[in-house]
Amino acid sequence: MKTLGRLGAGLALSLALAATATAALAEVFTVAVVSDTQNYSDITLPQPRGSNTFEQQMRYLADTRQAKNLAFVTFVGDLVQHGDGQFRRARPDAVGQYETFDTRQEWDIANRAVSILGASGVPFGMVPGNHDYDNYSYWPEAGLGPSKPLAGSRAWSFYFGPQSRHFAGKAWYGGASANGMNSFQTFTGGGKRFLHLSLEMEPPQSALDWAQGVIDAHPGLPTIVTTHEWLEPRKAPRSNGQASYFPNSDHLSPDQVWDRFIRKNAMIFMVLCGHAYTPAVEGKSEGENLRIDRNDAGHPVYQLIQDYQGNTIGPDGKPGSANGGAGWMRFMAFDTDAKKIRFTTYSTLLDRHAGRNGESTFGGAPTLSEFELDFPPQLAN
């Protein structure tokens, strides 16, 4: 009887330890998505109203990193409005005359805000959007209009490239492509290591070859891809601005990137983007959508757009009382116990969530602002 008692006690202890270990592994961690911040940085819009909103967002991420168990933050591009460092616009009071702006101020606004997040120690990744290219809004000729194709990353690389203070020497920053516009990061959530790829807008084949090398060097890691342009709000097809932004170049459309790269890599389970939004109606603009396709391994790939830049309703409830974006951000809570990813949308400026109680915050379906998805097979233990 004593022997059986010892065995019973040992079994009970083993079960208790197993339960404790299981409980310890059960975790909710969060990945945040910061979309198109150009209106916060834009020096032609009300300032410091916009820069204050940008900094408020970054402080919120830093201050809630422990409460949210914030594992990673990704920026979907368009950090600034006028990426080339200088631009000009027609003067409203003088026909045929222009005024010139030096937009280093915009990069400085973005840099100051992002530095708040950087000081928190939370890993993050960034991709350039069309507004972040060197020639987006600078016109050496007499006429107005962006230069094509988009090219150059001098300003981007100086502020947010691999040698910038935000990434150089960081253990979670894995490296960048030769042009510095594609990079990768790793982070840990729920006891699992993840790979994140930051891909330039409409990446060329050379960028995909680089990204494939990164995936091959990190076999078995669940992978998230962030790029600037991928989906349209309201529409099922992927967006395609390649002809508008990169004519006669080797840049690829989202459909081509899907066929050549995303679908062929079984561990990619999510693609995140910004860029596209609908014209605002009374300060509300749609910029959310979800598309799910299966890759060649038969696994679902969740593709999401989150772009709030068309929303200008501020704390007073009036359109135009906030710089476009109004502090909205996307949060993805990974519940390792329930095996669910819970998506929420929150504004630091308004201190409220979108899509709750059936409210169509942005004029579209509230279920695009707050919803949940099952863990895909790529996240299986």
What does the model show?
- The structure is a single chain.
- The chain has one domain: Metallo-dependent phosphatases (Purple Acid Phosphatase, chain A, domain 2, 4-Layer Sandwich), CATH 3.60.21.10.
- It is built from 8 helices and 16 strands.
- The two termini are about 40 Å apart.
- By secondary structure, it is an alpha/beta fold.
- The strands form 3 sheets. Strands 1, 2, 5, 13, 14, 15 and 16 form a 7-stranded mixed sheet that branches. The chain has a 7-stranded mixed sheet with strand order 6-7-8-9-10-12-11, covered by helices on one side. Strands 3-4 form a two-stranded antiparallel sheet.
- Residues about 1-25 have low confidence and may be disordered.
- Helix 3 runs parallel beside helix 4.
- The longest helix has 24 residues, at about 1-25.
- It has helices at about 1-25, 40, 50-65, 105-120, 155-160, 205-215, 240-245, 255-260; strands at about 30-35, 70-75, 85-90, 100, 125, 175, 185-190, 190-200, 225, 270-275, 290-295, 300-305, 330-335, 340-345, 350-355, 370-375.
- About 45% of the residues are buried.
Set down the secondary structure blueprint.
Blueprint: H1 2-25, E1 28-34, H2 38-41, H3 49-63, E2 70-75, E3 86-90, E4 98-102, H4 104-120, E5 124-126, H5 154-160, E6 173-176, E7 183-189, E8 192-198, H6 205-217, E9 223-226, H7 242-245, H8 254-262, E10 268-273, E11 288-294, E12 300-306, E13 328-335, E14 340-347, E15 352-353, E16 371-374
Parallel strand pairs: 1-2, 2-5, 8-9, 9-10, 10-12
Antiparallel strand pairs: 1-13, 3-4, 6-7, 7-8, 11-12, 13-14, 14-15, 14-16
Helix pairs in contact: 3-4
